[in-house]
Amino acid sequence: MLVKTYSSTVFGIDATTITIEVNLGMGVNFFLVGLPDNAVKESQQRIKAAFKNNDLKFPGKEITVNMAPADIRKEGSVFDLPIAIGVLAVSEQVNTEKLAEYILVGEMSLDGNLNPLKGILPIALQAKKEGFKGLIVPVANAREAAVVDGLDVLGVNNLMEVVRFLNGVDEIEPAKVNIVQEFQRMVDELEVDFKDVKGQMNIKRAFEIAAAGGHNVILIGPPGAGKSMLAKRLSTILPPMSLEEALETTKIHSVAGKIRGEKGLITQRPFRKPHHTISDVALVGGGSYPQPGEISLAHNGVLFLDELPEYKRTVLEVMRQPLEDRYVTISRAKFSVDYPAGFMLVAAMNPCPCGYYNHPDKECVCGPGVVQRYLNKISGPLLDRIDLHVEVTPVSFDELTNDIPIEGSREIRKRVEATRHLQQSRYGLRSGIHCNAQMSQNDLNEFCKIDEAGTQILKVAMDRMGLSARAYDRILKVARTIADIENQDSILPNHLAEAIQFRSLDREGWAG
Known about the structure:
The protein has helices at residues 38-41, 43-53, 80-90, 120-129, 142-145, 159-166, 179-186, 201-213, 227-232, 243-255, 280-284, 294-297, 313-317, 320-325, 370-375, 380-384, 397-401, 409-427, 441-447, 452-465, 469-485, 493-501; strands spanning 2-11, 14-25, 30-33, 62-68, 102-104, 107-108, 114-115, 134-138, 152-156, 217-220, 271-272, 285-286, 291-292, 302-305, 327-331, 336-340, 344-349, 388-391. The chain has 512 residues and is an alpha/beta fold. Helix 5 links the parallel strand 8 and strand 9 (152-156).
């Protein structure tokens, strides 16, 4: 006798449906085939114990379980539930009528209870795409899967609930999440606000430009000047995520196992702050079984690298390609996986090891050449990919204690949204371009034309600061954003001058 159940496995951030074929034959062996890893092979012991503890009978015959397609490696404990139901169905303990309508996923404990899993949202999206009626998942994952409209998501606590449902004894109420209402309710919630930041008007201006054009930023200044405080608030002035962006972001976090509890949909732009001891693999993703790294978890949001020179140089250099291409490819001998990595980079650093180089009040105690060696930890090619270099100065006592009203994140975000709408209208349906930072060379030639006065300003800046051709392009992109904020069709000399000001910390001028 042969019975088929259906499950799913995640590869990258997309799911593939797996057919579980269970056949009953002569003998007493248990064969599990179809490229299972050790966690899948161990399911036999978990299933046997769960059957015994729930008064279910494990067949005393030869059982062959094939997981098709057989050329895809099956990983993890997600297949415990579909294999167990297949064994029960082939031994006529479970009705087979509903098996073709549902995807089943779940890791079983020895008592038959189901534990939560990673990657449920991609599985739910694939189930809907392939026309399945529903999805049976551990109850802890039900809310996450229920954001997919048009799919009956049945959250169950244990194996016996599934058995009773398939046999028609009990009904299970599908989990319901109003995704539009959920999105609108949470999209405008702000945990932090620019109202908390006293002074630093030039930094706020730089952040508004960065948010409006999707530009990368580096902050350089002494300890306690407010670099981290400002960086944490950048995501609050970015335009709210669209529903499509929210789903894409949630998929990545689901695959990485970062979604827990009642949180079904990520509606706030991610803010990731990895420690400076992070490894290359943890930052860009990878491992024996590739997982998303910090740059992918920051997709559609902000990646904040505090104390930039303290990161290993190899860690920083691996970001160069994702910063340009907005995705990262993890390659292995037999396969490769692409992860999205469309993030805004915000970096912060002290100007020297002691932190007080060029401080207005405190004296730097670093020896000759120490400042330059410290700054040389960051390569020129990486700096070229950062559009705005901003010097942060300490906040004065008067600024800290005054009661002048401070503009909040929502007010700044309105201007940023208006600027982004302008850019979206300009680029129309051009693939992969949503803001000025993503412009190609052809787009620069078309949309960033400058007059004779602007050309002369740029020529002087290039000669004096020793800027590269990439830095030249970055200046044009930032100037285009400044012009958009002011609702100007053309890039004027004052826009270029302000953009060049934000390159004043480039390599040629940092250490005097």
